[in-house]
Write a structure and sequence with these properties.
- The complex is a heterodimer of chains A (about 475) and B (about 250).
- In chain A, helix 10 packs across helix 11 and helix 21 crosses helix 22.
- Chain A contains 24 helices and 12 strands.
- Chain B is globular.
- The model of chain B has no long low-confidence stretch (mean pLDDT about 95).
- Chain B starts with a strand and ends with a helix.
- Chain B contains 14 helices and 8 strands.
- In chain B, helix 12 links the parallel strand 7 and strand 8.
- The chains are: A alpha/beta (about 475), B alpha/beta (about 250).
Chain lengths: ~475, ~250
Amino acid sequence: MSPSADHPILDPTLAPSFPVGALPVLRNPQLRKNVAHAIDVIQAKRDRLVTEKKDWQALRTAGSDLRAHTLENLGAYLQQFESRCTANGGIVHWAADATEARALILDLLRQENASEVIKIKTMTSAEIQLNPYLEAGGVSVFETDLAEIILQLGEQEPSHIVVPALHINRSQVREIFARRMGLKDLSDDPHALTAAARTYLRRKFLDIPTAISGANFLIAETGAVSVVESEGNGRMCLTLPRTMITVAGIEKVLPRFQDLEVMLQVLARSATGERMNPYTSLWTGVTPGDGPQRFHVILLDNGRSSILGKSTERQTLKCIRCAACMNGCPVYRQTGGHAYGSVYPGPIGAILTPQLMQMHHAQSLPYASSLCGACYEVCPVKINIPEVLLELRHQVVDQERHHFSRFFDPMFLGLRIANVLFSRAWLFHTAQRLGRIGARLFTRKDGWIHSLPSVGAKWTQTRDLRGLPSQTFHEWWAARPKEAK
Amino acid sequence: MRASIFITCYNDTLYPETGRAVVRLLERLGVTLDFNPRQTCCGQMHANTGFRGEAFSQAKRLVRLYQDTETVVVPSSSCVAMIRDQYPGLFEELGNEQLRSDFKALLPRIYELSEFLVDKLGVEDVGAYFPHRVTYHASCHGLRALHLGDRPYQLLAKVRGLDLAPLPNIDRCCGFGGTFSVKNGEVSSAMLAVKLQDVVATGAEFCTALDNSCLMHLGGAMHRQYAGMKTIHLAEILACTEASHAEEFA
């Protein structure tokens, strides 16, 4: 499977709009089957583990309150984290945007004379497109998370934030490994595939002394950083190398160590459908003789502080990247992640990506939802994603409504006209009568409309529409015998 | 009891039979009905597409039209969800104190149809007769915004002759989503295809719901595909009696 031919580039400034980006996926039966199968498996596990937890709603409330409180006091907690981390031997850097963060990381790697670096799975590094930047800067990057290895060797982009290669099945993994690792006779047996990955990885762990990670949580109280993972490959990166560079969004902080009690419970159950994730790593600065001896943390803003200042949108930053919203989303289930044109797909991506882009790009994403509310229902920190989607739609309309090009846009024009009609009953009733006459042009003998022009064609491409009835309800009511009323 | 019916813009225009069924059903249960012919739309389409100012003016209009009524019954779960979930925010941002307090007084008197029957009238057996195999589609807004829960099933269980077929993946959206169905027409169609497989597999003759918008979506595909099924609003099933069944479904 070739990388860029099948998938749009995952850069919201270049990606096609969501409806266009979705088309190749909708036409790809293998991809749709892979995505639906993977999601159904995760969802079933998640539902089982949430149902068994009798205090699940109380846990959600606790998680939500905790994240909201942290965001209310983010500045103070970040400063506390910086001072505790520094006191423990870590070095804290601040990056305003992706450009600053990437330059900082490359600079740190050059100070280490590093020509190679191993990585723990991190969405934040994907957000700032770190890998291609480092490669261009002469540093070879090696992913160590199994799914990320598959993507890196297969030259593909992530389609999910927890299970980034969920769109690929094991026979496709076999093909990638066989080709890139030179293993002609590799079978698609999961044991054989993981054994091949283990052999590939072992050399990297032993040879490369510099590592990059993201962070699930930063603990303000102690200055600790936490990463949770399933495979233990992250643990290898956290123990063998001499130098660790962590890049984390500024919203990742938690006030106290004991707050992990709530967050780790809701995260594992929501993300992978496990009571506890297999590997939870916590490290605090530098410990002589144990683990990396040089430790840098880069605190990345990249648009987050502008989101923080807006009352409805702020809740976006409560996200702990569990992906329950995409697993529960009926849209994502059909399109997978690549249609979103962003490293953050699904419902959370539909609100986070345009905001990280300061609403200059990715404006089709707030509309990439039927507003069914499944995302809000499963969110372990109660982000009201539909509410934020509506706020962003409002901003898109406000930006575009005065553009000349939008004046004759059928959707804008239609909604403007509809608003006038809805404001006066006699206008609405006149429009109903005219519509009834107009609809006759399109109504077939069976009483149904099979084909409409313009925007209507988007409906009739797969659905018929019953012709307009000869009498509206209000006409029927008016014609009722008086004594019946 | 007296109640005013808000029939909604698309029921008035596209599905008047649902409105007529609501009238037949509620009058049979002894409710005296009012209908204000000046009613148009709740503003949901504009609100959900991002036209907040327009949605506000329609919302305000609705409050003014109904503020003096005793009880309002609405045969559309998504329109009631619009009123409950979105009006408060719209009025907070764009309305004045008077409007907010008028709305606050009106809100508890607005009922979705199944809420009105089960909660307000306290009836489950409405004396209906509908000898068909039927599956119930739980519209997202009824399910998650209004928490209608068992109400529709309680009502359906008491319909004589009705054979209720459980619908798998009941909590999965049909892909309508208002303007989503045209703005993202292909994705919407893909969601619909998956939903329709579940609906057809029930072997039911009719798919019912408390929202004609989902039913327009499902019914449009059923008709296109000669699926051998029809959609019907729950009000029409509940309004049906032995006498009317012979007339309408013979």
